Amino acid sequence: MDKKFVYADNAATTQVDPRVIDKMLPHFSEGYGNASSLYGLGQRAHEAVEEARKKVAAVINAEPKEIFFTSGGTESDNYALRGMMHSRRAGGRKHLITTTIEHPAILQTCKALEKEGFRVTRLPVDQHGLVDLKQLEEAICEDTVLVSIMAANNEIGTIEPIAEIGKLCHDKGVYFHTDAVQAFGHIPLDVKAMNIDMLSLSGHKINGPKGVGAIYIRSGLLLEPFITGGGQEKGRRSGTENVPGIVGLGEAAYLKMTEMEEESTRVRALQRRLIDGVLATIPQATLTGHPTQRLPGNCSFVFAAIEGESLLLFLDHMGVCGSTGSACSTGSLDPSHVLMGIGLAHEVAHGSLRLSLGRFNTEEDVDHILEVLPQVVARLRSMSPVWKD
Amino acid sequence: MQYSSKVMEHLMNPRNVGELENANAVGMVGNAKCGDIMQMFMVIDDNEVIQEVTFKTFGCGAAIATSSMATELVKGQTIKEALALTNTAVMEALDGLPPVKVHCSVLAEEAIRAALADYYTRKGIDPTPIVGEIKPFGEDDDDHHHDIPEEE
Ligand SMILES: Cc1ncc(COP(=O)(O)O)c(C=O)c1O
Prior knowledge:
The structure holds two protein chains of two kinds.
Chain A: E1 6-7, H1 18-24, H2 40-59, E2 67-70, H3 73-88, E3 95-99, H4 104-115, E4 119-123, H5 133-139, E5 144-148, H6 162-172, E6 175-179, E7 198-202, E8 213-217, H7 243-281, E9 285-287, E10 298-303, H8 308-317, E11 320-321, H9 327-330, H10 337-341, H11 346-349, E12 352-356, H12 363-382
Chain B: H1 5-12, E1 25-31, E2 36-44, E3 50-58, H2 61-74, H3 79-83, H4 87-93, H5 102-122, H6 128-131, H7 142-145
Antiparallel strand pairs in B: 1-2, 2-3
Helix pairs in contact in B: 1-2, 2-5, 4-5
The complex binds pyridoxal-5'-phosphate.
C-alpha cells in the first residue's frame, strides 16, 4: 500500500506553521500572565496581545484599535450581525441583506434574527457563485441596516466583488460586513479602499491556531457589547484574553502578509496543475465556482454518477484528505446550500469534491492526487448503476 | 459520524460487484435526487434458490456496504428465506450503522425484494401477493429519507 498522505482540505482547517507555534509556546510557559495584571508578567502578556493586534490590522489596512479578538470566525460573524442589528433596533430599522451561499455562521444567525423580528433578504448568486450588484442595489430599502456578503466562498472558492459592494453600500448609506474567514491572508483586502465596516477572520484558516479569530470594526461604529464581563477588548468582548492563541493569530497573519505574493503564486500554480490534470484525465468532471475569480487553493469539482461521501472514504484510504457537499456527508437531506445556490441539480451536487491546497502542499502532493483520484472515480463508476461512458 | 470497521471493510472490498449477464431477476430502487440508487442482479434456479447475486450502487459508503452485505446474506438462500431478510439483519451483520444511514439498509432490503418481484414478473406471475408493493424506481422516497431529525 502506498503510504503517502496528502492533506488537501486547507479550506476546512490548516496545519499550524511551526514558526507560529514557536511564538505561541512561551505564552503557555514562562509568559503565562494575565494581560490585565499590572505587574511585569501581566504587562508583557498585554504587550504581546497589542503586538498581535497590530499585525492583524496591517493585513487589511485597519488601525490596531479597530481589531477585536474573538474565539474565531463563527463568533465574529455572530457579533457582526447580532451586534449591528440589535444596536440599531431602537431606530426601527430591521432589514439585513446577505446571500444564499454564506457560511452557516451567517445563515443560522440570520435565522435567529428573523425569529427576533428582523427581516432578512438572501440574494441569489449566478452559476459561478457571484452576487449581482444590481440585485443588491434593488434589495436595499429604507430600513436596511446592514449588508453581509462573504469575501470568498468556502466551498467553491468564488471571490465576490467586495470593493464594488462596499462602494454601493456606502453610496446607499448602509453598513457593510464581510465574512473574510476564507479570504483573509490569502488575497489582498483593504478595509479602507473597499469601504468595509466590519470584517470577520479566523486563525485556523491561515496556518494559525483554532479557536481564535478577530473582528474588525470601523472606528466610530457603535455596537453594543457582545460578551459582558470584565471589560476586556474595550468592553466589547469580555473574558481573559487567550494570549497564546492571539499571539499565534498575530504571527500567522504576519506570515501571510509578508509571504502572500510568493505563496499565492506558488499555490495558484499547484491549483492550475490540479484542476487541469483532473479535467484532462477524468471524463465528465466539471469545475464548480468561478473559472478565474477564485481563491488560490480551491479546486472544487463535480463528477457524474458517483457520490461524494464514498469518494472521500476511498480517497482517505489512498491517503488523500478532501471534502464534499453531498447530502450524505452533511448528515441532512439536501446537498450543500452552496451547490444548490449555484443552481446544481441534487443528483449533480451529490458528486461534489473539494480539494483545497495550501502553504504546505507540494507538486508531489498534486501528482499523488492526480494518480489516485482518476482510479478512485473509475472504481466508483464501475460500481455505479447510473454511469454511462 | 463513525462507521464500524465491518462497514469500512465491505466498502473498501465490496463483495459481488457488477452485473450478471444471465440474470433472471433484476431490481433497481432509490433515486438520484436523494443520492442513492441500488441495483441487484440474481440468477435464481428452478428450486427458487438464489445461485448468484451481484449489485451496482450509486451512493454513500453505507449504501455500498449494505449492498455488499445484503448480497452476501442472500446468496444461496431460497426466495422465501431472502424475503425474510430485514434491514435490521443487514445492519446487525455490519455491526450497526449511524442513525442517519439506517435508510441505506432499508434500501438494500427493498433492492432484494425488487429483484425478486422482477423474477416473478418475468415468469408471468403477479409478484405483489408474494413480495409486496415495490416502489417504482426513481420515485421520491418520502418514508425513510425524510424522517431524519433536522439538526439545529
Ligand atoms: C466562510 C467561513 N465563515 C466562517 C467560518 C467559521 O470560522 P471558525 O471555524 O473559526 O468559527 C468558516 C470556517 O469554517 C468559514 O469558512
